[in-house]
Automatic annotation (TrEMBL):
It comes from Actinomadura madurae. GO terms for biological process: amino acid transport. This is Branched-chain amino acid transport system / permease component. It is found in: Cell membrane. Its main location: membrane.
């Protein structure tokens, strides 16, 4: 029973990172990013491509892939999302939905619909004794990283000046502007950060 509960925690860890990135973007921009899951997929494929084409192992991919896709998210926000935001919300809804379909179709045409092999790092290949049961080290690592990332984001949002600005811009944007803070300046990095979280969950 405890092992099944732990399985649920590990599975939920992926969704927690996904939901965190989605919530950050929606809170700051008011945009329902339907392409968020596609960037999660790109995180997984990014790690696979890094290994298959460049010989980069899991640890390098874990460091490189999320920031790179975060930059891709910044480009998407600057070129498309920002221009559509002042218009009817339906435009961004349709744009992100279309972007998700395009990204999925591109990867499907390139790699097919079957899963691609990706070896677990040798350092995480064994099992850990958790007292009442043993559990794969990789799954424990996933849960630990997810908890640390979520905790770090919480600390940044609640304990730092940047976090205060982001929360104020989310909850009271007009008042924040009246205090002389450029809300628009923070939109792009927040969008990129949300995409990077999705990519991290994918890796």
């Amino acid at each position: 029973m405890l092992q099944q509960a732990f399985n649920g925690l590990v599975g939920g860890a992926f969704y927690a990172l996904l939901a965190l990135g989605l919530a950050v973007i929606f809170g700051m921009l008011g945009v329902v990013n339907l392409a968020h899951g596609a960037f999660y997929m790109l995180g997984a494929f990014g790690a696979f491509i890094a290994l298959d084409s460049f010989g980069l192992n899991f640890w390098v991919s874990l460091i490189l892939v999320p920031p790179l896709l975060g930059v891709a998210g910044i480009i998407v926000e600057r070129l498309f999302v920002r221009r559509l935001t002042p218009l009817d919300p339906l435009y961004n809804f349709l744009f992100t939905f279309g972007l998700a379909l395009i990204l999925q179709d591109v990867m499907k045409r390139q790699y097919g619909v079957n899963s691609q092999p990706y070896p677990r790092p040798s350092q995480l290949g064994g099992t850990l004794n958790l007292g009442l049961f043993t559990y794969p080290a990789y799954q424990v690592f996933v849960l630990g990283v997810s908890v640390l990332v979520c905790a770090a984001v919480w600390v940044v949002l609640t304990r730092t000046r940047v976090g205060m600005i982001v929360r104020a811009s989310t909850e009271r944007p007009e008042l924040t502007r009246a205090l002389g803070i450029d809300v628009g300046r923070w939109v792009t990095p927040v969008f990129g950060f949300g995409i990077a979280l999705a990519a991290l969950a994918g890796v």
